[in-house]
TrEMBL record:
<feature type="domain" description="GH84">
    <location>
        <begin position="196"/>
        <end position="479"/>
    </location>
</feature>
<dbReference type="InterPro" id="IPR011496">
    <property type="entry name" value="O-GlcNAcase_cat"/>
</dbReference>
<dbReference type="InterPro" id="IPR015882">
    <property type="entry name" value="HEX_bac_N"/>
</dbReference>
<dbReference type="InterPro" id="IPR017853">
    <property type="entry name" value="GH"/>
</dbReference>
<comment type="similarity">
    <text>Belongs to the glycosyl hydrolase 84 family.</text>
</comment>
<dbReference type="GO" id="GO:0005975">
    <property type="term" value="P:carbohydrate metabolic process"/>
</dbReference>
<dbReference type="InterPro" id="IPR029018">
    <property type="entry name" value="Hex-like_dom2"/>
</dbReference>
<dbReference type="GO" id="GO:1901135">
    <property type="term" value="P:carbohydrate derivative metabolic process"/>
</dbReference>
<feature type="signal peptide">
    <location>
        <begin position="1"/>
        <end position="29"/>
    </location>
</feature>
<feature type="domain" description="F5/8 type C">
    <location>
        <begin position="662"/>
        <end position="801"/>
    </location>
</feature>
<keyword id="KW-0732">Signal</keyword>
<feature type="active site" description="Proton donor">
    <location>
        <position position="311"/>
    </location>
</feature>
<dbReference type="Pfam" id="PF07555">
    <property type="entry name" value="NAGidase"/>
</dbReference>
<dbReference type="GO" id="GO:0015929">
    <property type="term" value="F:hexosaminidase activity"/>
</dbReference>
<protein>
    <submittedName>
        <fullName>Beta-N-acetylglucosaminidase domain-containing protein</fullName>
    </submittedName>
</protein>
<dbReference type="InterPro" id="IPR008979">
    <property type="entry name" value="Galactose-bd-like_sf"/>
</dbReference>
<keyword id="KW-0378">Hydrolase</keyword>
Amino acid sequence: MDRRTRTLATAGACFAIAIMPLGSPPAAAVTDAATDAAAPAVSTLPPVSPTPQSLTPAGRDAVVTGRVIVVAGEGTDAGARARLVRELTAHGADRVDIVSPGEQPRAAAGLLTVRLGPATRADIAAALGDTQVPDRAEGYALRVTAGRQGAQIALAGKDPAGQFYAVQTLRQLFARQGDDGWKVAGVQISDFPSMPLRGTIEGFYGQPWTHAERLDQMDFYGDVKANTYIYAPKDDPYHRGKWREPYPADKLAELGELVRRATANHVRFTFAVSPGESICYSDPADRKALKAKLQALYDLGTRAFSIPLDDISYTRWNCESDRSAFGEPGRGAAARAQVDLLNDVQRTFIATHEGAQPLQMVPTEYGDLTDTAYKQTLRGTLDPAVEVMWTGTDVVPPKISNEEADKASALFGRKVFVWDNYPVNDFGNTSGRLLLAPYDKREAGLSAHLSGIVANPMNQPYASKVAVFGTADFTWNDRAYDARTSWPRAMAYLAGGDREATDALLVFGDLEHLAPTFGATPWQPQAPELARRVAEFWTSWDDGNRTGAVRALRAYATAVERAPATIRGGAVETGFTVDADPWLDATELWGRAMVTMLDALAARQGGDKETADRLLAESNDLQQRARAVRVDPPRNSWGKAQPRVGDGVLDSFLVQADVRLRLWDAAGGGENLALKGTASASSVEQNLDRLAARHVNDGLMGTRWASGYSDDAWVQVRLAAPAKVAAVTLAWEGACATEYTVQTSRDGVNWRDVSAQRPDGCGTDVVRLTADEAVQYVRMQGVERRTTWGYSIYEMGVYGAPAS
């Protein structure tokens, strides 16, 4: 923590440089003004995250003096005051004196004076001048000025949380002054959150976070102004399966410490208990046990509670008395039972406990916009005070629009509270993946339609900070949110402001950019920056500028190879390097394979075939080593898996380069001939057009072909003309093959098995062929399915050269 305190203030200075390798635009640090030509003494306005509602110049920068006076009264938030002293001490103050209002020492002239407290305090109001304190919960105002009488900073909060957030903004305004001094940017800020509920829900399946990891998360949420953490890990037995049983004393002590750490960071610790698997709704004893569980956490200081009823059967009862009380099992009856329980908890527990926040719940129907008897009953009879959570139009929605939010609110009879299943990676489509893409595809203006958003993070807590940082940024000021600028700031946060480490994280994050959903189209594409550079490479190569093409891409490939060592070099949070360890191992190997392949291309272009062949062999060996890396031991329920690194982009480039080298003298060697071919298949899952065979060679990783549910299903591509085929690539979805063969044919009637494959997982398979004869058909012939579903392939590539 101390390391970050010292270095984060420099993040703004290096930010624009840090993101240049990815071609991103400069950070938009403010919403109201970017420069102030009338005040040349003011430095460039620093980037602040979350983006303030208003940030403008106020005058000259304030120099941090060796002794600083902090004016704090009885209304000053203790957490804000402690963080302020820590930041001042870390940024040049050798001595911080805390005095009451009106008691500044005479010797304070010329010293930096910082006033912290409620907006109603007279001295703070005077120091703010015309800087307005928003009349909104958690709002704050900040003003930094410097003059002949010395510099002063005013930090005013609408409430204690506002004071704390003012200090969190101040820590981002420090910048170096000379070799060993510090200054604070001369700005004025008027700011407040757009959404009342912002943060995370630890609601994934698989290994829950450790106590130490959760404590760290509370500090992180304070830093990014997130105010909500919902404790709901599916694999905590006392949260779900053993919900009636009290927590053991040691676990209860941990929860108490977690509640206190959350409170210190102005995070609302929300305790969730999920009884739906076994509760008898009509049983007074079960209700008593549920309230006792809530009371135990209330006694620890918890003031927010949730009863999630997701992922349960609601078409059967757990006891016969529920049949008598609520009728035959079904949607309407289930809703009646759930409402009866929830209204009881809201009215007899929440309403009778001082300071308790409105009850939250997750409906069993949480991820659609279909009106049903279940939703009709909820909106007609559920207490209006109860917050209802909704995941969007799918379990993992590729987008959330204002129109969709309004429809959901109408269905449930209140503004919904979004449980956003990103960056959670506990489902099959995420096997082997870290999800490091920025928070995106949520429409500006949602703050007018939702009560809040909480992100469901990954089993890997530190790696989750990338997306959660963006979630906090969006929920604070959704109308000013820009994923292109928030994402590099998230990486800079993890890197403690270190420029080189930030660059390395951006390169690594691009290789972990794919964001799957439960549907056919990933939420975000894989490796967009690398894909852009690879496309430019082949364009330049085919235009004849081969030396320039190799030089440009090799520089980026070298950055890929070196990124893991830089990330592990000490600047980046240690927890992140632990979370990402197998992915970093694989990235280094893939990067070396790419550099070596480019060197092979350069050698072959220079006429040195022997060196090119040797380097090609070295690259292929590195690729095999990269594919052999495993996430082990895994934190996720998907078990030991191959880390996915730039899959579909990096490996596809290596295949194409390999084929170019092998078919160097063939015209068009290395072209993906499948793109100009015609696909057909033995079957299509449920005859759905969106899963038709034509999607297997449309060049889009967001579409796919899926077969019927048989082991002997196949898909094939008829090439536009006979060709010598050197390689076939198969980018599998989660329903892949345990065993299959690649077959070729001249006429589509007589087939030859050219390769038998038994992959150890679902990913992108590269099948190299001898290219010894011209063929016109290439087929994936299934032998054995890995799942009960059919076979599903995003893309089938056929690389080679036309026979003519």
